[in-house]
Description:
Layout: E1 2-7, H1 13-32, E2 36-44, E3 49-57, H2 61-66, E4 70-75, E5 88-95, E6 108-113, H3 122-125, E7 129-134, E8 140-143, H4 149-179, H5 183-188, E9 193-196
Parallel strand pairs: 4-9
Antiparallel strand pairs: 1-3, 1-5, 2-3, 4-5, 6-7, 7-8
Amino acid sequence: xxxxxxxTGQSPAECQFFAKHVFHKICREAAQYDxxxxxxxxxxxxxxLLSAVLAVSGSRADEFAARWLGTLxxxxxxxxxxxxxxxxxxxxxSRLPEMPALxxxxxxxxxxxxxxxxxxxxxxxxxxxxxxxxxxxxxSVRVESERSQHANKKRALQLLAMKLAEHLSQQNQRYQxxxxxxxxxxxxxxxxxxxxxxxxxE
Length: 202
């Protein structure tokens, strides 16, 4: 299994709009490769997506990922700012480290609480929701999607491990950016895939 991270960084609305299209296209193309996908995390914005992490599994996962890794370019007049002169928008797809070993229990503080939202009386009677906090980094996740506390705890561990991997990747990226201040501009000029117009024709 591999983990693909889609990111817009601090890019404007147009890049966020493009990112949402890219995310859906990645999922559709994965199906054509007979691959299974699972959305690990997704950060939506008013205009589309700020970032997302997708798990991809199957015999052709590496071949598939190679088609997407790098900078993606969208050439189109801004759908939000008609008078804006810029027509080139970029998002990045990177591969996260493999899922690390699940953190040990002594590294995590578990908190339980009643699940909120819809679900009738059952969802509020028991403290089935679980919040897991990684003590050394302060990273946390909250899970209430399952009915049992045990299932939510297991899922929380998995999500926390993924969040730790993403955190490590971001730290590495920041280090590389500090060491190579012109890296981003260089990558923008070397898109691995280019899409054009509001129909995103490649």
